[in-house]
Specification:
Blueprint: E1 3-5, E2 12-15, H1 16-23, H2 27-35, E3 43-44, E4 51-53, H3 57-69, H4 74-82, H5 85-101, H6 103-114, E5 117-118, E6 121-122, H7 125-130, E7 142-150, E8 159-160, E9 170-173, E10 183-186, E11 189-194, E12 199-210, E13 213-221, E14 232-241, E15 269-277, E16 297-302, E17 307-312, E18 321-328, E19 331-334, E20 339-348, E21 351-358, H8 361-364, E22 371-378
Antiparallel strand pairs: 1-2, 2-4, 3-4, 5-6, 7-8, 7-9, 7-14, 10-11, 11-12, 12-13, 13-14, 15-16, 15-22, 16-17, 17-18, 18-19, 19-20, 20-21, 21-22
Length: 382
C-alpha cells in the first residue's frame, strides 16, 4: 500500500483502491458513498480523477457500516456522522423505538419464511412462489423505464444515474403476473430469479403519482449484485404505457437458427470454462475477470454431426445440468431460445482458448451486446 501527500494540510492520503482493500469493500461502493455525500474523499486528483482518503477515514467507514447494519438510511447516516454525542444518542434511541414497534411485523415475516420449509429442508422456491396466490394490481400492467437510484426513497428528485447493466433498464408487467425473462410479480412484490441462490428474491415495490407521471420505487436486494452494500437499494421507474403485452411482444431479439451444418474439426472436443468477459479483448490468461464461483456454464462439448452440449454448474443438490444444442462452423445454435452465438478460437502463447458469446435475457429482451465465455481445451479433440 502506498501513501501520498495531498488533501488538507498536505497530510498523508491513501488511493481509493488501497483504501477499499483496507475496508474490505469495493472502489465502486466508495464512489457511491462519495457521490451520496456520506463518505467524501479527502482529496481528488484533478488530472487522473482518482479519489484519495486519509487514514482517519477508515474509522468513519467502520461507523458507516455499523449504522447501516442497524438499518439507518444513508441520509440518516450522514446526519449521524456529523452529529454530536447527544444527538447521536437521541437518534439511536428513536431507532430503538422504531425497531420495537416493528416486532410484530417481523414475527409475521419469520412465520411466512418458516412456512416455506419442511423439516428445515428448502423447497423448490421458484416453483413454490409461482404457485402462490396471485393478487392483481391492474395499475402496474405495462412498460416501465429506469430512472435511476434513489438516494432518498421518499424523494424522486434525489434520483441518480446507475452504471450500465446494474439493474433492469426496462420492466414489463404482464397481466396475471406472468413471467418475463427472470422476473414475475404479484401486488406489491417483484420476484427476480437469483442465479447465485438458485431461488427467487422478493423485491417490494410501491407506486406514486407526481406531476401527472406514474412512478414505481422497487427495493432491490443487493445480495446478488456485487459492488453494492449487502442490503437493499431503492430504484425508481417511470411508467411508459399501460399496454397488456404478451410474452412474444416483449422478446423482440431473436436470431436465425436454421443454418446448414458445416463441420469444424478445430473446435471438436471438450472445453472447460476459465472466465467470463464483457468483451473478448478484455481477456488475458493472467487476469481473472469474473470469479469462478459466478461462472454458470462450466463446460461446452462439440460432438460429431453438429451436436453440442453445454454443462452448467451444480445446483444445491450437487447435480450438474446439461443442455443439448446444435452448432455449425462459427455458431452455437439454440433452436428453442432462438439464439445463434458466435464462437472463435484465439491463441495465447501456445494455448488455444475458445470464446463463445453468451446470449441470455440481456440480449433477447434487452438488446444488449452479448458477453463472452472463455474456455480452454480439456483433453484431446474428439
Amino acid at each position: 500500500m502506498e501513501c501520498y501527500n495531498g488533501g488538507k494540510g498536505g497530510g498523508k492520503v491513501i488511493k481509493i483502491g488501497d483504501f477499499a482493500k483496507i475496508c474490505n469493500t469495493s472502489a465502486r461502493t466508495l464512489r457511491y458513498y462519495d457521490d451520496a455525500g456520506v463518505l467524501k474523499a479527502d482529496f481528488v486528483d484533478e488530472a487522473s480523477g482518482y479519489r484519495f482518503y486519509s487514514p482517519n477515514a477508515v474509522e468513519k467507514y467502520k461507523k458507516l457500516v455499523f449504522y447501516k447494519e442497524l438499518g439507518f438510511s444513508l441520509q440518516e447516516i450522514k446526519k449521524l456522522l456529523a452529529a454530536t454525542e447527544e444527538e447521536e444518542k437521541k437518534m439511536l434511541k428513536k431507532k430503538k423505538e422504531t425497531l420495537l414497534s416493528s416486532v410484530e411485523e417481523i414475527q409475521g415475516q419469520v412465520q411466512t419464511i418458516d412456512g416455506m420449509f419442511v423439516e428445515n429442508e428448502p423447497k423448490e422456491n421458484l416453483f413454490e412462489l409461482l404457485n402462490l396466490p396471485f393478487t392483481d394490481d391492474p395499475e402496474v400492467v405495462g412498460k416501465w423505464e429506469l430512472c435511476g437510484l434513489l438516494r432518498d426513497e421518499e424523494d424522486i428528485e434525489s434520483v441518480v444515474e446507475l452504471p450500465p447493466r446494474t439493474i433492469f433498464q426496462e420492466l414489463i408487467f404482464l397481466p396475471g403476473g406472468a413471467p418475463v425473462w427472470t422476473y414475475f410479480w404479484t401486488k406489491g412484490v417483484l420476484y427476480t430469479a437469483s442465479g447465485r441462490y438458485s431461488s427467487s428474491v422478493p423485491n417490494p415495490y410501491k407506486t406514486m403519482r407526481k406531476n401527472g407521471e406514474h412512478y414505481m420505487v422497487i427495493q432491490f436486494s443487493a445480495e446478488d449484485r456485487p459492488g453494492y452494500p449487502n442490503d437493499v437499494f431503492p430504484v425508481l421507474y417511470r411508467q411508459v404505457d399501460t399496454i397488456a403485452y404478451s410474452e412474444e411482444q416483449v422478446r423482440p431479439y431473436v436470431d436465425k437458427v436454421d443454418y446448414p451444418f458445416i463441420e469444424d474439426p478445430q473446435v471438436s472436443g471438450v472445453w472447460h470454462v476459465v472466465d467470463f468477459v464483457h468483451d473478448s479483448e478484455d481477456f488475458h490468461p493472467s487476469r481473472q475477470q469474473t470469479p469462478k464461483k459466478y461462472l454458470a456454464t462450466v463446460e461446452i462439448t462439440f460432438l460429431p454431426r453438429g451436436m453440442c452440449v453445454k454443462t452448467f454448474r451444480a445446483d444445491a443438490g450437487g447435480k450438474k445440468t446439461n443442455r443439448i444444442l446444435h452448432y455449425t462452423k462459427g455458431l452455437v445454435l439454440n433452436r428453442t431460445a432462438l439464439t445463434a452465438e458466435k464462437y472463435v478460437i484465439q491463441v495465447f502463447g501456445e494455448k488455444e482458448y475458445l470464446f463463445v458469446q453468451h446470449k441470455s435475457g440481456d440480449y433477447s429482451y434487452g438488446g444488449y451486446e452479448p458477453c463472452w465465455y472463455v474456455f480452454e481445451r480439456k483433453g484431446k479433440p474428439v
